[in-house]
Design brief:
Length: about 190
């Protein structure tokens, strides 16, 4: 199992070619929070979908199925100020691990919303734009090494539609961690490597 610092070094190297705001430091901070949350729950996988670089103008594509899950709507939190060692379970990314939907973070690192449904993404159309051709399924067309489901297909599609953003996922089925930009996989850490 790789230490989180090694993952962060690998992610930083993977982001060398990235010209997408927000800063690499902020992307690394979000990745660090997610990977620490993963370590804090050994043996219990969770699903997570985080969009970093969200703009309020895109809110027309969102809906909240359960307002209780949108814990940041009234009290925003900056990811830079989250103490990794001592989670504030009332207002922290870790407190959303059992929620459905996406966490939206702006380009400055302010967590805006959680438990968000992002509508109208159309993964098949995006997959054909990013990777044209004939494939057995969307997982293969987007370049995943194995089958992925709705969360990951929505996330990689969101990274293409809502540019410039960096999107992160954690799989509750496999424990795999992914980062996406421009409809492409930027970094993957399989559960065995986490």
């Amino acid at each position: 199992m790789k230490p989180i610092t090694t993952h962060l070094q690998d992610i930083e190297r993977a982001l060398v070619q990235s010209h997408i705001a927000p800063s690499v430091d902020l992307k690394l901070r979000v990745a660090e929070l997610i990977l620490h949350a993963r370590e804090s729950r050994p043996g219990k996988w969770f699903g997570l979908f985080v969009v970093l670089g969200w703009k309020e103008e895109w809110n027309e594509f969102t809906d909240i199925s359960d307002a209780k899950q949108d814990i940041f709507a009234k009290k925003k939190k900056t990811v830079k100020k989250i103490n990794i060692e001592v989670y504030d379970m009332k207002r922290d990314i870790a407190s959303t691990l059992d929620f459905d939907g996406a966490i939206l973070i702006d380009v400055e690192g302010t967590v805006l919303h959680s438990g968000v449904m992002i509508e109208g993404l159309r993964p098949r159309i995006v997959a054909q734009a990013v990777h044209p051709g004939s494939f057995s399924d969307l997982s293969e067309q987007f370049g995943f090494t194995g089958k992925v489901h709705t969360r990951h297909l929505s996330a990689i599609t969101a990274s293409y539609i809502f540019q410039p953003t960096t999107v992160f996922t954690m799989s509750e089925e496999t424990g795999d961690f992914h980062m996406f930009e421009n409809g492409r996989i930027v970094y993957t850490a399989t559960y065995a490597a986490i």
